[in-house]
Every structure is written in structure tokens, then in C-alpha cells.
Amino acid sequence: MKKNDVILAAALIGIALAAFGGAALYSQLTTKEPEAVVRLDGEEKGRYPLSEDTTVEIRQEDGSYNILRVESGKARILKASCPDKVCVSHRPISRQGESLICLPNRLAVEIENGAESGIDASVLSR
Amino acid sequence: MARRTAYLGMFTALAFVFSYIESLLPINLGIPGIKLGLANLVVIVALYTMGVSWAFALSLVRILLAGLTFGNPASMIYSFAGGMLSLAIMVLAKKWKVFSVTGVSVLGGVFHNIGQILVAALVVETAGLLFYLPVLIVSGTVAGVLIGILASILIRHLNKMIKEGQNVGKET
Ligand SMILES: [Zn+2]
Predict the structure, then answer these.
(1) Nearest CA to CA, how far is B125 from chain A (Å)?
(2) Is A8 close to B145, i.e. CB distance below 8 A?
(3) How many domains does chain B have?
(4) What residue numbers bound the domain in which A104 lies?
(5) pTM to 2 decimals?
(6) CATH of the domain at B74
(7) How far is the CA of A94 from the centre of ligand 1 (A)?
(8) What is the pLDDT of residue B28?
(9) How many domains, chain A?
(10) Residue range A77-104: average pLDDT?
């Protein structure tokens, strides 16, 4: 390992830590009335405020499903039909910008700030 | 040429084994399908002992084989994006001559992860995935350092072997 290699590794880790700290601080400061936003293929399917405990089943035409649980201010995937279960093992999310992803089902749950007024929450078709 | 083909076969087998080991590791970076890129070790060794085109060939064959055997079409796209971006960056970094094998490997590891996350962000159309970038840069750097140290040892021995092999070839 040469000196340049060490500098490179240290610089990369430094950048990553700074970016991580910045992002965490930013989302901490800007998170307001957070909502879990469910998207399929990028299309919004529903918004659920983290302040209300709820369980939502997102079922698709081909039979695949994800069950989203919102509990004590955090969102997580309770159960899913996907083969890898990565979405289920992900830690609960609560801050703006955090996301739960299920690639096999093309599902994304993201935390976003709630609009102050007039949220037109679309109800999921079961 | 025949010897090179034999090495390519051996490297492909090794890369295949690494991909298999990696598919067994329960390392979850939070993003589905994303791997640490242990198979990069073999690609780097090939890059330094056999050259760019052989490294590309090896990388492609490895991704196809591993994808067909213990992956799915989705995971193959990630491997492909990660593998190709990482190799392209490593080829450039090697030419640049500022870093040794370890530095090149670190860049390869980091861009392996960046390539995969970019594709994942496109697939689920969620820019929020980029929040994982810091974690992926750190894991890519750590994996890159470890792989780089291993690779430089292997490269030293292999280059010696290849030279000796050529001398033996001349005698007979
Ligand atoms: Zn899933």
C-alpha cells in the first residue's frame, strides 16, 4: 500500500462521514409531520402519517404483496411475498429521506414531510 | 495463448466461487441485490496479470454465470452495472499510475457500489436511495482495501509464475 492509497481511503471515508452527518442532521432538522409514502413503479399509492398507528396491505394484481406497519412513529415492512425479504429485515424508518425498498415487487416506501393542509391521500385498491 | 486461456478458465472458476460465497453471506447493506464485490479480487488480479480485455471478458463471463446460477435478472443488472463501472474506473486509475493496486481496488470497490445504487435508484424511481451513498462508500472502501492487499500478494506470485512458465515454455 502506497501513501497515495492511504490518502485516497482516508479521503473517501472522510467524505462519506461528512455526507452521512450532513444528511442525518438535515433530515433531523427538517422532518415535520413525517408520512410514509408508498410508491409502486414510482407511482404514488398512498400516504400514511407516522403519528397514527396503522397496517396497510399493498397487494398487486400478480398476487405479490407487502404489508406496511406504522407504529410509534416508525414504519417497517411486516411481511412480504418477495423472495429475498430484504425489505422485511430493514430497520424501521422514521426520518425524512429514509426509505424501505422491495425491488422484486418494485415497491418503495419513503418518509416525506406532510403537507400542512389538504393531503389527498389516495386509498389503496385492495 | 493456450496458457492465457487456461488462466482465464482458472480465474473464471475462482470468480464464480467468490460470487457463490458472497451470495451466502448474510451481509445486508439495506439495499436489495447489492453485493460487496468480493469477486472483484479476481478481476483486479486479471487486470494486472493479463490486461484490460481479459479482465473485461472475465468480468462479463462471471456476471453471466453467477447471475444465471444464484441470481435473478434483477441482480444480474446490478452486478453488470457495478462490475462494468468498477472495471472501467480501475482501468483508468491503473493508467493514471498515482495509486498502487490497493488504491485502484478501493476506487473499484466504491464505484462498484455506486453503479449498483444508481441502477437501483432508476429501477424503483426513488432518488431517496442515494441516502445510502455514504454507507456504500465506506463499505466499498473497506472491501477495496482488503481486496487490494490480497490482490497485490496474488499478483506478485502470479507474475512470477507466469514468467517462470514462459521460461519453461522456451526450454521445451
Ligand atoms: Zn421485499
Answers:
(1) 5
(2) no
(3) 1
(4) 35-112
(5) 0.76
(6) 1.10.1760.20
(7) 18
(8) 55
(9) 2
(10) 87
* Interface contact B138-A42, CB threshold 8 A: no
Judge whether B86 lies within some domain.
yes
- What pLDDT, on the 0 to 100 scale, is given for residue B45? 92
Indicate if the pLDDT at residue A55 is higher than 50: yes
| Helix B40-50, helix B101-123: angle, nearest 10 | 130
Give chain A's end-to-end CA distance (angstroms, integer): 58
Contacts of B138 in chain A (CB under 8 A): 12-13, 16-17
| CB distance A1 to B149 below 8 Å | yes
Quick one: pLDDT at residue B33? Answer: 52
Task: Give the pLDDT confidence score for residue B43 in this predicted structure.
Answer: 92
Residues B95 and B107: their CA atoms lie apart, in Å, by 13
Mean pLDDT of chain A: 86
The ipTM assigned to this model is 0.83
Do the domain assignments include residue B80?
yes
Exposed, middle or buried, A107 (CB in 10 Å: 0-12/13-18/19+)? buried
Give yes or no for A4 touching B (CB within 8 A): yes
CA distances, A61 to each of A64, A85, B63, B124, B130 (Å): 7, 20, 32, 18, 29
Q: Which pLDDT band holds residue A122 (cuts at 50, 70, 90)?
A: very low
Q: Do A14 and A45 sit in the same domain of this protein?
A: no
Contact A23 B131 (CB under 8 A): yes
Residues A46 and A93 in one domain: yes
Smallest CA–CA distance, residue A33 to chain B, in Å, is 18
Determine, yes or no, domain membership for B172.
Answer: no
In chain B, residues with a C-beta closer than 8 Å to the C-beta of A103 are: 32-33, 74, 120, 123-124
> Does A20 fall in a domain?
yes
Percent share of chain A, pLDDT over 70 = 90
- Residue ranges in chain B whose pLDDT is less than 50: none
Nearest CB partner across the interface for A2, out of B103, B138, B140: B103
Angle, alpha carbons A44-A75-B139 (nearest 5°): 95
A46 plus A106 within the same structural domain: yes
